[in-house]
Write a structure and sequence with these properties.
Layout: E1 3-10, H1 16-29, E2 35-42, E3 48-50, H2 57-61, H3 63-66, E4 72-73, E5 91-94, H4 105-113, H5 122-129, H6 131-140, E6 148-152, H7 153-158, H8 160-170, E7 175-179, E8 189-191, H9 194-204, E9 210-215, E10 221-230, E11 233-236, H10 251-255, H11 279-295, E12 302-308, E13 315-321, H12 329-332, H13 339-357, H14 368-371
Parallel strand pairs: 1-2, 1-5
Antiparallel strand pairs: 2-3, 3-4, 6-9, 7-8, 7-9, 10-11, 10-12, 12-13
């Protein structure tokens, strides 16, 4: 009997449109002989829809005029609520990126509903989304990270000159300015001087109240690795070098830039697979990736991004993406795991993880209430 696999995409996130692409790619590539794919779409206003026709990308380009054609429902934590269409899914594949989606909020819903889901859990998702907390975790693990500072929107507004001086003397230029809780390069800018720094911060504070300032490396090299837990082992994909960092890769570069093969830069973005790095660096990255995956209690496919200096000899951990765009399927194909097989593995491990969780004791029958019978509670 086929399993019903809910594919959840969209969301109240600045990465909403990227999520639609990931979700539709999953529905297209899932093994239809084994699974019934059920689209679950959250639009930009937070309304939930489910309809088998939600597989045409053209629908979402004109969503406001099309939404009345589709069935809306309201998610509920009541497992017996028949109007909650989520309960029709045997497994949920979360293909939604960014805040409100990748940061533990959706994961918490499926924990309450006891529905197996594909991504890291609440804690791993939340810490993996927050770039400041993420940096502190990496540092606490003894992993190499680039020097950084962070401040709040209020602190910047009150002490702008002090922070500018601190950044200049502590980090110097070039630097990257990043909202703490966004991805896909949205709200991120590179600054080479004070004027660009001020402009970059003014952009970033529109997206988050906490801002990360990170030391940049001239002519740095980015290397990415994907990981997946399967059959009691953390597997590592092939590595990639997405672009040269002479210029910062913006959101448009990542997802919209055209090339000769495709109208979208998402799947055909210029990248080297495998990258031009020596075996020692490659093994170091793979070892860091396993350590991070385990320490942050990850689940499903993640992608961890690294930065090398321009000599390609020093590795820095940059960030983790707990729900990477397109599930980084292109990094698994070189190790003989195609997208369909990758989804099979994710679904299997989602079910196993949910079964494993049921071994935990969740409630405890104490004698406290019996002992309190007839006793008066102490006033404070």
């Amino acid at each position: 009997m086929k399993k019903n696999i809910g594919v959840l995409f969209g969301g109240m996130s600045v990465e909403h449109d990227v999520s639609i692409i990931t979700g539709l790619q999953i529905i297209e590539n899932i093994d239809k002989a084994k699974y019934n794919a059920i689209p679950f779409y959250i639009d930009k206003t937070g309304e939930w829809f489910s309809d088998k026709k939600l597989i045409d990308i053209k629908i979402f380009d004109q969503w406001e005029s099309n939404k009345k054609k589709f069935k809306k429902f309201y998610p509920s934590l009541n497992k017996k609520d028949k109007n909650n269409l989520l309960i029709n899914a045997d497994v949920i594949i979360i293909a939604a990126h960014g805040t409100q989606c990748e940061d533990g909020k959706l994961q918490g819903i499926f924990e309450f509903l006891d529905i197996p889901y594909s991504s890291s859990g609440v804690v791993g998702s939340a810490t993996g989304m927050d770039k400041i907390i993420m940096k502190k975790i990496f540092s606490g693990m003894g992993l190499p990270v680039l020097p950084y500072l962070w401040f709040t929107r209020d602190e910047w507004n009150k002490e702008q000159k002090e922070w500018i001086n601190k950044i200049h003397y502590t980090l110097d230029y070039p630097i990257f300015v990043k909202p703490a809780n966004l991805g896909s390069s949205i709200g991120i800018s590179m600054a080479n001087n004070e004027k660009e720094l001020i402009n970059a911060v003014e952009i970033a504070v529109n997206y988050d109240s906490r801002i990360l300032i990170e030391k940049g490396i001239k002519k740095a090299v980015e290397i990415n690795a994907s990981a997946l837990y399967y059959n009691k082992e953390i597997l590592i994909s092939e590595l990639e070098e997405p672009v040269h960092w002479e210029e910062f890769l913006s959101f448009e570069d990542k997802y919209i830039r055209p090339n000769s093969k495709s109208k979208s830069g998402l799947s055909n973005m210029s990248r080297k697979i495998p990258p031009d790095i020596n075996d020692d660096i490659k093994n170091e990255i793979k070892e860091y990736t396993k350590r991070i995956y385990r320490a942050m209690d990850c689940k499903g496919v993640v992608r961890i991004d690294y930065i090398l200096d321009n000599d390609r000899e020093k590795v820095y951990v940059n960030e983790i993406n707990t729900i990477p765009g397109s599930f980084s399927f292109y990094l698994w194909e070189p190790v003989n795991i195609n997208f369909t097989k990758l989804l099979d593995m994710i679904i299997d491990e989602s079910i196993k993880a949910n079964e494993n969780k049921k071994q935990n004791i969740l409630v405890y029958d104490s004698q406290i209430l019996k002992r309190m019978n007839g006793a008066k509670l102490q006033k404070v």
